[in-house]
């Protein structure tokens, strides 16, 4: 009979956050797959658990994933851990879960620490609807495209960031969302120097220019107000219509194409087209 894959979350700072169920799962697993075996060994020593460890990280995941799947199919149970927090969330694991699911292996995720959810809960921002955006790419093009795709996002947005990249990220966020957009900067969660700064993007830029950032950060950025979203999409429609009309499209075709591209009702786009050029 095949074994199972358990996703075991580990503390993001406070060792007291390891749950009884996580402890038991680590104890009972046949082996543990860890992002960094040295980091996990420290945790296991703290818990008094001795267990065979294999490494599973970004650059060996394809090859190691196959090996892990074979061992589980052979009847062993694997507990997957990352350095901190929930495996598979901006951490290795996503692919292993996919591989196991494809092989018909049962995957069980144990709930536990996750920096994104911990930060959202204490951010003071709207929590009813949110989106997790992970780390912004350091590559200019994909970073710009990622931010561009969020320009009209009305849900609360959650980003991960390292301290040495914080200043540049705040500048880019301010350029995309405006300096007045509220942000909660959640730092060193569950640790001795846990801190939440609730301010605006402009306020955060000024604050961290004076106080160099230290520790790990989750940025919780308020979504765009609905009214702002409407104005933005009308501006976008007007700009696109002007472009298409310039290219020689008829008003009817320009309206049809703009409505399709921006997912706006044709009537709305038609009204904008008329306001741009009352006479055709
Ligand atoms: N899988 C992890 C989770 O569930 O939270 C996230 C791993 S990701 C590689 C690491 C990022 O999570 C850090 O750069 C930081 O943005 C955030 N993070 C992790 N621990 C944190 C903490 N104690 N306080 C604030 N942010 C933290």
Write a structural description.
The structure is a single chain. This protein has 280 residues and is α/β, with parallel strands linked by helices. The chain contains eleven helices and ten strands. The chain has helices spanning 20-28, 37-47, 61-73, 94-102, 115-123, 140-149, 166-177, 201-210, 226-246, 251-262, 266-276, and strands at 4-7, 31-34, 53-55, 78-81, 106-109, 130-135, 156-161, 182-187, 195-200, 217-221. Helix 3 (61-73) packs across helix 4. The radius of gyration is 24 Å and the shape is globular. The model has no long low-confidence stretch (mean pLDDT 95). Bound molecules: S-adenosylmethionine.
Which tags fit this structure?
280 residues, single chain, alpha/beta, binds S-adenosylmethionine, five-stranded mixed beta sheet, 10 strands, 11 helices
Provide a short characterization of the protein structure.
With 280 residues, the chain is of the alpha/beta class. Helix content is 45%, strand content 17%. The chain has helices at residues 20-28, 37-47, 61-73, 94-102, 115-123, 140-149, 166-177, 201-210, 226-246, 251-262, 266-276, and strands at 4-7, 31-34, 53-55, 78-81, 106-109, 130-135, 156-161, 182-187, 195-200, 217-221.
